[in-house]
Amino acid sequence: LGLCVSRASASVLNLNCCLVLLPMCRVLLAFLRGSQRVASRKTRRLLDKSKTFHVTCGVTICIFSVLHVAAHLVNALNFSENYNEDFPAINAANYRGEDPRKLLFATVPGLTGVIMVLVLFLMCTASTYAIRVSNYDIFWYTHNLFFVFYMLLMLHVSGGVLKYQTNLEEHPPGCFNPNKTLRQNMTMPKAFEELFPDYTTECFPQDLPVPEPFVQNNLMRICSEEPKFQSHFPETWLWISGPLCLYCVERLYRYIRSNKPVTITSVISHPSNVLEVRMVKDDFKARPGQYVILHCPRVSTLESHPFTLTMCPTDTKATFGVHLKVVGDWTERFRDLLLLHSNQDAEILPIFQQRRYPKLYVDGPFGSPFEESLNYEVSLCVAGGIGVTPFASVLNTLLDDWKCYKLRRLYFVWVCRDVESFRWFADLLCMLHNKLWQENRPDYINIQLYLSQTDGIQKIIGEKYQALNSRLLIGRPRWKLLFDEIAKCNRRKTIGVFCCGPNKISKILHKLSNSSNSYGTRFEYNKESFS
Q1: CATH number at 369-528
Q2: Which residue ranges traverse the bilayer (predicted)?
Q3: Does domain 261-340+356-366 have CATH number 2.40.30.10?
Q4: What are the sequence ranges of the domains in the chain?
Q5: Residue 215 and residue 209: Cα distance in Å, rounded?
Q6: What percent of the chain is modeled with pLDDT above 70?
Q7: CA–CA separation, 393 and 376 (whole Å)
Q8: In percent, how much of the chain has pLDDT > 90?
Q9: b or e along 404-419 (b: 16 or more beta carbons within 10 Å of the residue's beta carbon)?
Q10: In three state form, how does the secondary structure of 239-270 look?
Q11: Does 191 score more than 60 pLDDT?
Q12: What torsion do the CA atoms of 294, 299, 300, 304 make, to the nearest 10 degrees?
């Protein structure tokens, strides 16, 4: 039973170790999302589940690894206690009663298995939500142990512990071997005593033909030779070599692509600890809604973080930018390096001072669900706090030209705790609002700003923000009424729902999107999820 369970669990592990790497091939996913090869929106939306698929494979690997280890612990005990001198080739133990710990720590399969269990334990525990939130560095560094895990996995299957018989025709299971039986002083079957009285006490002749009556009676099959065993051909590398090579090639391509540092053109410090970085890079192209991975060697040699693009390069300008909220060690050190005087609220440096910026490398861009926001006729975009960043690039794109996209109506809902946070993109919202009014399309975008916590200031400071002050509401959105209103105004249409914010808001929107309504309107839910 132990051998059967270990073999079955090993097959499941082979499959999941193969699949778990595919969702991490970001370049491949971005290519599939942006190419015409995946024309169906429903199929493209499946790519948004890449992180969920990766986590599912990881959990499956953990579960079946426990099952695999438990089965091999039973196998080690059985090999030791049930050692059979007749078949030394298939015994992992060297003698009866051998310490099972020797099989676990003194053999290549055993030792590599123990180390893989330790590596998997570190990766699994460091991937929990509590550790990722409290100390992202631990998650980052332990997760990169996957390469060690795969190298050990290659060695683990090369031990050849499990074997199979190669001469089943010459030595079928349950066959009778006269020579072996006589040497062990076992009782000769009565049929053989009557047929071969002269060979009851000496070796059975190898070339003696088997009596026809005995064969016809099917009493017992006679072995023509001793059983021969051979180690199973290791199949694990057939499963993981393809995805592992694909992942390594992609990482090499990403390293070459991001090897040249970008040119930082400006750094702006916004209210509520938000930093905007604008930069330029040769031949950099991106679509609205995509994200990049920033790496600053002076902050951390190995660590890098994803940030959504808030400004994409266009045909007329090559500048692109990101907004990042200073909430951790990495962002704090990054901010201190970028700002010459950290106590200043804003700073835009001229070109001759560019040498004072640290080297910054950009990997990407990579795809995200928000690329689909422009492919719906009607879209509902909901942002919570700094979660507005994916929609900023969409709004910037619409400011350049909105007529070339399928989108004809955009509901934009932004919820913040303090009024100062709205100033991150207040200028952008006002410019887009004024442009649509000038082009006689004021109904193109519906802006709703919600201030969840008020301190008495109920309007955005500045005369130029009058258009937004009339859309600023105190409290939280009444989501059910909002969905009913949108469904009523867009009967029998498919509306894309996009959310980037707290999980509480996300769960509410997901539930409402799956609810039916009396207007025949269908809501398709999308959520930001970095791979």
Answers
A1: 3.40.50.80
A2: 12-32, 53-74, 103-126, 138-157
A3: yes
A4: 1-165+233-249, 261-340+356-366, 369-528
A5: 11
A6: 77
A7: 16
A8: 20
A9: ebebebbbbbbbbebb
A10: HHHHHHHHHHHHHHHHHHHCCCCCEEEEEEEE
A11: no
A12: -20
